[in-house]
Every structure is written in structure tokens, then in C-alpha cells.
Amino acid sequence: MTSKANSSTIVAISTALGRGAVAVVRLSGPHALEIVCNITRKQKFQPRYATLCHIYDGDELLDEAIVIYFKAPLSYTREEVCEIQCHGGAVIAHRILELTLECGATLARNGEFTQRAFLNGRIDLSQAQAISQMISAKSVQAQKILAKQLRGDLSLFVNESRDKLLEVLAYSEVMIDYADEDLPQDLLSSMQKKILTLQKILEEILETSARRTQIFDGLTLSIIGKPNVGKSSLLNAILACDRAIISNVAGTTRDTIEERVNIGGVELCIVDTAGIRQSQDEIEKIGIERSCAMIAKSEIVLAVFDASKPLDSDDEEILALLQTHKDKEIVLVLNKADLPPKIKPDTLPFLSISLSAKESQIAPLMEHLKGLVQTQDNEGIVLSNASQIQSVKMTLKSLQEAQKELEAGMLEFFSYNLKEAIAHLGHITKPYKTEDLLDKMFGDFCLGK
After folding, report:
1. How many whole angstroms separate alpha carbon 347 and alpha carbon 326?
2. pLDDT for position 433
3. With contact defined as beta carbons under 8 Å apart, do 141 and 376 qualify?
4. Separation between Cα atoms, residue 54 and residue 61, nearest integer Å
5. What is the CATH number of domain 10-122?
6. pLDDT tens for residues 363-389?
7. Nearest to 121 by CA among 69, 68, 70, 73
């Protein structure tokens, strides 16, 4: 892989396909500038300056475009890079792509530009992963966390932590090699303190990252309740459009309806479920079973009640069902607040909000939902994916084993486990560089990145 990266010039369309004002064709490799000179008939480009050019298809003018040349190593890949900003639409960009291929470029694979940036030391693995995740981020908060990761915050933490562990390892090796010498009495306690401090920090990072998983994956919010209490009206009010059928006939919604909406900078998948009640209708019973199952899959549950009527047996069963899901964020929505109330909020087992979905008077509910999904922007290190979390878990496991060996005075085994911890932590930024592993890691990137 490395030899190919050093010798070939790759090309891809970096912008999304379809109609748009501008499309970008990106080249990287030793012949990038030469190829661009061929299709523009220009012989000189000033690095990092935008140059207006004509693109030629043989002897015919194809397009007028902006070309930016990035001279190695001051480029995204640390290779010679040219970006052709042509007029949008699929036809022009694809023809320019074909022209570059005819001049000797090869079509880039998914993520190959970023892979070259990684192989050439421009970025480490955590930064490469941040780039990939930013493209598909589901919330502004995720974008902010990933921007810090791309800046190098996680890399800096990993490097500083590895340096601290290497310092402790050096102490251990000295104690092993010079066991008969007089060494400082507090050396063991100092080593133990450094490890315990890092353990605590890593445990806090894992805890914070577990709470922030929904920032990257999005949240699921289910709307439940018995038939005809206004669930579909509430969904339509949240979406600000008529997505669900509204009817006075109980049981109108017999299956789940899913829509996605951004609330407080976080993507929510909102699921309007079938009404929950005692029913003999086989089709309706299937919908009710799906509604109950949906609660288990949701992080937030809005249970809707008709506040203009006293609670009945179906309502009580729903409240009992919710009691078995106290790990969820549960909000009782007392709908039809425009009518005289028949339900007392202080008698209910969960937080309740009164509103009128029919009149789209849902501002208090929306503010509460924003509060549930939003997090503090000043949090420290947050791990953004499963591989980073696994690396930290394995690091902690090795540190715990090292701590036991240190307490037992087994310095050789202590050093071994410490080396394991250092290796696991290092995988966050610099994994084993095998071709198959790298191809797998970068294969999930989009084309042209």
C-alpha cells in the first residue's frame, strides 16, 4: 500500500453528486500538477492561490474553473494536490474526471485521500476517524466534539498519558536492573500514585463517553398512549406538518410511524406508536405489541393522556408499564389542556407537561426536550467510536493487572502489563499498519475524502 501511495496519482469527485453550483475534482500524487497543466494548457500555478482556468477536452473548451494547487508537503495528503472547482452537475465533473484518468491518474478508492494523509503522517487515526464521523454527524454537539478531536485534543491526551506510563515503566526497569542498589524509598508509592491517577481519568472518560453515545448515534423518542388521546396530533405538532392521520376513530394508527427531527442540535427519531389498550382485534394487537417493544428501544418516552377525562384502566396499565422502564427519560404529556382538566399532575408518578397538541401549543415540551438532549460544551475528552472505547477499556484492564503485580512486588510482571497498557492506549492514534487493516478502516469513508 505504501509504495502505491508514493507512486500513483489518484483522482475523485469530492463533492456530492447531483445538481449544485460547484463541483470539486481532487487529485493527489506526484503527477497531479502535470495532469492539471495538461487539461488547462497552463504551465504555472502559484501554490495555495486560486487560479481561473479553462478546461479543455481535446481542442474544445469544456468549462471555466478555479484550480488550487497545494505543493507537497503543505497539503491534505502531504503529496502534490490539485483541486479543480468546476461548475456543478454530474456531466462536467465526470468529464473532467475522465480527462484526468486519460492523462494517467487512477480512480481513488473510498477514503484513499485520508488514508494517504495518515500514512504520510499528516494525521493520526483518531483524527482520520473524526473526519469520517464529521461527514455523517447527526448533531451539532457531535460536530463540536469531533472538531476538537480533529484539532488533536484526543491525540495530545493519548501522547501525554503514554509519556507518563513510559516514565513509570522506566522507574520499574531501573528497579529491576538495580535491585541491589539504594533507590529512593518513595519510588514505589510515586509509581502507584501515577497509575491510580491515570486510571481515574480513564474511568471518567469512559463514563462521560457512555453518556454521550446518543450525540453520535442519535436518539429514539417514542410517543405512546391509548387510542385517540392525541398522539398523532402531537407528532404533527412536533414536526410542524401533517405526517400522521388524525381521526376521532380509536385505533386509527395501527402501526408505528417514524420521522426524524433535529431538536437542540441532536437528531431524534420520533416514533408514533399504535394506541395501547385491551383489544380483541388481531391486527391491532400486533400494533400494540410493537408499541410496547418500542418503549424498550427508546431513550425518551412521551406518554400521552387525555387530560379532559379521568384516568381509566387503560391509562393505569400504561402507567404500570412505564414503571418497568424507569431507566428511560419519561414525560407524561397531559394533552387537551384547552379543556377543563380532570387529571391532577401531582398524583402522577412521573414528570408531566400540560399542552394542547391540536392547537400546536407545545413550547414547554420542546424546551424540556432540548434540555434532555443538550450537553455541556465544556466537557473534556469524549471518545467518539467503539474502537476508541475498546482501547481505553483494554488499557484500564492492563493497568489494573499492573497495579496488582506492583502491590505484590512482582516488578517483571508489572512491567509487562504496563507495556500492554501503553500499547492499547497507542492504538487510538497509531494502530498496527497492516495493509488489510488500513483498507478496512478507511473503506467506510466517502469517495473523494
Report:
1. 17
2. 54
3. no
4. 7
5. 3.30.1360.120
6. 999 999 988 887 655 568 999 999 999
7. 73
C-alpha cell at 272: 408514533
Q: Quick one: pLDDT band at residue 409, thresholds 50, 70, 90?
A: confident
Task: Enumerate long-range contacts of 73-77, CB under 8 Å, 24 or more apart.
Answer: 73/120, 73/122, 74/47, 74/48, 75/28, 76/28, 76/113, 76/117, 76/122, 77/28, 77/113, 77/116, 77/117, 77/120, 77/122
Task: List Cβ neighbours of 295 (8 Å cut-off, separation of 6 or more).
Answer: 222, 224, 301, 321, 322, 325, 328
The CATH number corresponding to 217-373 among 3.10.20.30, 3.40.1280.10, 3.30.450.40, 3.40.50.300 equals: 3.40.50.300
Return binding residues for K(+): 228, 247, 249, 252
Which residues contribute to the annotated binding site for GTP? 228-233, 247-253, 272-275, 335-338
pTM: 0.77
Helix (H) or strand (E) holding 400: helix 386-407
Binding-site members are 26, 83, 122, 228-233, 247-253, 272-275, 335-338, 449
Select from 78, 77, 105, 97 the least CA-distant residue to 24: 97
HSE (side-chain half, CA atoms, 13 Å) at 226? 17
Ramachandran quadrant class, 89 (left: phi over 0; alpha: psi -120 to 50; beta: rest)? left
Quick check: 367 and 399 in contact, CB under 8 A? Answer: no
Do 406 and 192 contact (CB within 8 A), yes or no?
A: yes
Nearest to 165 by CA among 153, 177, 154, 173: 173
What residues does each domain of the chain span?
10-122, 136-211+383-444, 217-373
Q: Which residues, in sequence order, are bridge partners of residue 354?
A: 334
Architecture, CATH, for domain 136-211+383-444:
Up-down Bundle (1.20)
Percent of the chain clearing pLDDT 90 (strictly above) = 60
For 342-371, how does the pLDDT look when each residue is reduced to its tens digit (9 = 90+)? 999 999 999 999 999 887 789 999 999 988
Q: List pLDDT tens digits, range 213-265.
A: 778 878 899 999 998 898 888 998 998 854 444 444 444 444 578 888 888 88
What is the pLDDT, as a whole number, of residue 248?
Answer: 44
What was the pLDDT predicted at 25?
A: 98
3-state secondary structure 120-157: CCCCCHHHHHHHHHHHCCCEHHHHHHHHHHHHCHHHHH
Binding residues for Mg(2+): 232, 253
